Amino acid sequence: MLNANYIVGLVDGEGSFNVRINKSGRRAKVELRFSLKLRHQDKEILDELQKFFECGKVYIQRDKRKNHSLCYRYEVQNKKEIIEKIIPFFKKNNPKIESRKLDFELFKEIAKLSQEDNINFEKIQILKNKMHWGSLHTGNPSVQWGCQVA
User: Fold this and answer.
1) 77-112, pLDDT tens digit by residue?
2) CA-to-CA distance for 103 and 36, rounded, in angstroms?
């Protein structure tokens, strides 16, 4: 059985909070995604994660690149489940790694903004650009890994 500390450690190492602004169709929308990918030998842990959160799906993720093994992904895309289950868990059990903690804080703010009647897509895009090691000062996502890309 998984506990909160184990889940936080797992997410710190292998998890991801993602945001996509989908402008296709009639109306733009904000899509939220929480995911975690592990090798096929560890699928059981993803199944337990799905039971723990009582939401999301576990599916196979094939990768045809050389030297990459078969993996499974646990993913939650349903906005209601993210807002009602994933975000409250991580508000109570903050990620420990600074980069993951920052991604979660930005993810949480974007989720809040995405629920407003008049969604400010520009503000959401600025926050999204700061995720995954984007520059805190410029919002430039090309500034990663401690060095600037020319």
Assistant:
1) 999 999 999 999 999 999 999 999 999 999 999 999
2) 14
- Determine how many CB atoms are found less than 10 A away from the CB of residue 143: 16
Residue 73's domain spans which residues?
Answer: 4-148
Q: For residues 34 and 76, is the Cβ–Cβ distance under 8 A?
A: yes
Q: How many domains does the chain have?
A: 1
Using one digit for the tens of pLDDT, what is the confidence trace for 22-59? Answer: 988 788 899 999 999 999 999 999 999 999 999 999 99
- Neighbour-count burial for 40-78, b at 16+ CB within 10 Å, e otherwise: eeebebbebbbebbebbebeeeeeeeeeeeebbbbbbbb
Closest CA to 99 of 138, 136, 125: 136
The pTM for the full model equals 0.83
We report the CATH number of the domain holding residue 133 as: 3.10.28.10
